Amino acid sequence: MAQAALGSAGLHLDELNKLRVLEPEVAAQTAQLREECRAFVDKTAEFQKIVGSLIELIDQLAKAAESEKMKAIGARNLLKSIAKQREAQEQQLQALIAEKKMQLERYRIEYETLCKIEADQNEFIDQFIFQK
């Protein structure tokens, strides 16, 4: 009867006979909800921590990939410049070969001319000796 009178006034007794404003079932549900909320907040915090570490790892991988990409671009550019240098060097050597061939041809012509002159002079000397 005391509980009914207290209940009509909005007051209740719990299992320890303490005076409460909330009904024991509502208080138990509130406590259970509080625990579920704490567990949810803890799980959310753990999830944020995991996501944060994942983002950090992805950032590190992105930086490493960007670094490797820059190295690859640098190596490709270096390779292109080496190829251009070799091409320029090949052209220089081809020009030098052409120049040396022209010089060889001039020397050959000069040699043939000198051989003709020598033959003409030897013939002249032989004719001169035979005339005396």
From TrEMBL:
UniProt keywords, alphabetically: Cell projection, Coiled coil
Keyword Coiled coil: yes
Main location per the UniProt record: other
GO cellular component: centrosome; ciliary basal body; ciliary base; cytoplasm; intraciliary transport particle; neuron projection; non-motile cilium
Annotated InterPro entries: FT20
Any GO BP: protein localization to cilium
Name of one Pfam family that matches: IFT20
Coiled-coil parts of chain: 79-110
Cell compartment(s), UniProt: Cell projection, Cilium
Protein name as catalogued: IFT20 protein
Organism listed in the record: Cephalopterus ornatus (Amazonian umbrellabird)
